[in-house]
Amino acid sequence: MRLTTKFSAFVTLLTGLTIFVTLIGCSLSFYNAVQYKYVSRVQAAATAIDTHLVTHDIVSLTPQIDELMIASDIVRVDLLQGERRVYSHSRARGYRPAGTSDMYRELVVSLVKHPGMSLRLVYQDPMGNYFHSLITTAPLTLAIGFIVLILFLSVRWLQRQLSGQQLLEIRSTRILNGERGANVRGSVYEWPARTSSALDVLLSEIQFAHEQRSRLDTLIRSYAAQDTKTGLGNRLFFDNQLATLLEDQEKVGVHGVVMMIRLPDFNLLRDSMGGNQAEEQMFMLINLLSTFIMRYPGSLLARYHRSDFAVLLPHRTLKEAESIAGQLLKAVDALPTNKMLDRDDMIHIGICAWRSGQSTEQVMEHAEAAARNASLQGGNSWAIYDDTLPEKGRGNVRWRTLIEQMLNRGGPRLYQKPAVTREGRVHHRELMCRIYDGKEEVSSAEYMPMVLQFGLSEEYDRLQISRLITLLGYWPDENLAMQLTVESLIRPRFQRWLRDTLMQCEKSQRNRIIIELAEADVCQHISRLQPVLRLVNALGVRVAVTQAGLTLVSTSWIKALNVELLQAASESGQKH
Hints:
alpha/beta; Alpha-Beta Plaits; TIM Barrel; seven-stranded mixed β-sheet; five-stranded mixed β-sheet; disordered C terminus; EAL_sf; transmembrane; lipoprotein; GAPES4
C-alpha cells in the first residue's frame, strides 16, 4: 500500500472516529437532558399533590390530579404507605397516533409533608417515540449526510494534494526496478518539486556517466580489435573470427569464402600525390568497400596488412564470390577519375574457398596467392586460388524451398548439448537446430541468415517455442535453452503471442525455459528489447546472451538488461 493511500485511510479513520464519538456524546447529552427535564416536571407534580393533601382529601383532589397528569404526561398515580398501596388513579386513555409504542418510566417520590408516605408516578417515556418520527430524525439524518459528504470531498482533496507525491513514489519504484533513460523522467505534477528535480539531475548525471563508461569500454575493446587508421577490424580480429568458423564445433561442415582485396600502396600515393590527396583517396576507397560489404549479412571487412583488405563471407560459394567481385569492380570503375591514379589498375581481388578443418594460416596463404595472381594479370581483376573444389552453396530459390519445406514439416531437427558446471552438474541443455537437405545436414548458422532475409523469422520462432514447450513435458527436470531471433522479439505481434503462450504454461515449466539471444543483435536493439525482456523475466523465463565478444560492441547491455547467463564466444574464451 502506497504512502498516500495509507495517509488518506488514516486521516479518514481518525475523522470518522471523531465524528462518531461526537455524535454519540451529543446523543447521550440530549437524551439525559430530556430525561432530567421530565423527571423534574414529574417531581414538581408530586410536590403539588403533597401540598394539596395537607388541606384536602386524596379523593377530592382527583380533578386536580388529572390536570397535573395531563400536563406532565403521567399515566398513573399510586399513593403508598410504606409498601402498601392506599390509593391508585389512572388517566383515561386518549387518542394516540398510529405506530406509537407504549414505553413508560416509573418514579417514586417521598412526601415531605406526609412522612412514611410516597407517590409512585408512572409517566410516558419522552424519548420512546422520538426516533420513530421522520420529522424529528430528519435534521440528524441531514447532519450525518452532510458530514459524510464533507468527509468524502475532503479525502478527494487530500488525494489530489498528495497525487504528486504518489507519482514520485511510482517513479522511484520504477527506478529501483532497473528502469533508466527517458522513460523515468519526472513531470511537473510531482511533489515535492525540488526532490523531483534533484532526482532528474542525478539520473541525468548517472546516464551521462554510463554513456561515458560505455564509450570508454568500447574504445578499450576497439584498440585490441580495430585498426586505428581506418576504423575497420585488424588482422588479429579477422584471424580470430576465421578460426572460430574453421573450428566447426557443431561438426556440420562449415564453409565460406575469403577475399583478399589489394589496393594501391598508400605510402607511395602519399609520396606522389601529397598527404591530403592520398588520405582523401584512401578513405574514399575504404568507404566504398565498407558500404559494399555491408550488404551481405554475416560478412566481415578488415585491414589485413597495409593496403591489403580481407573480406570474410561465411556460408558463401565461389560463384557468389565471383559475382560480388564483379560488382565491386564495376563500383570502382564508377569512381571519379584521378590523374595520379590509374582507375583501370586500382584493385586486385584474390578469392579462396575454405572448409572446416583447415587452418587459418593455410586459408590466408591461399587468399594472398590468389591476390598476387590477380595483380600479375594486370588491370582491375580477380583470381580464384582453386576453382576445382565442389560447390556447397544454394541459390535463393533452393534456400527458400528448403526453408518452407522445413516449416511445413514441423521445424528443423533438434539436437541437445548439455551445458555443464564446474562441479560436473548439468545446468541446462542447449537445443541445436539443423536442416536436412536430402544429402547432408545444414547448421542454423548457415540457414538462419536466409530465414531472416526471407522474412520468416517470426513463423520460425513461433514454431520453435511451441516445440520447446512440448519438450518440457518430456523432460520434467531439465532446463532447456533455445536461440530466438531479436527481429521477432521486437515485433509487438510476436510479443503478444509469446505472452499468451507462456501464460498458458505452468510456472514450473516457465522457470525451466532459457531464451538465447546474440550479443550483436541485442546491442543493436537494446531500447526496444527492454520492455519485452522485462515481461519475459516477470513470467519466470530466463534470458541468456550468446556470442559475447564476437563483435565490437559496448558491454552496457549487461546492466541495462536482466540477463542471467552469458556465453562467451570461443575466441574470447581462448583469450581469457
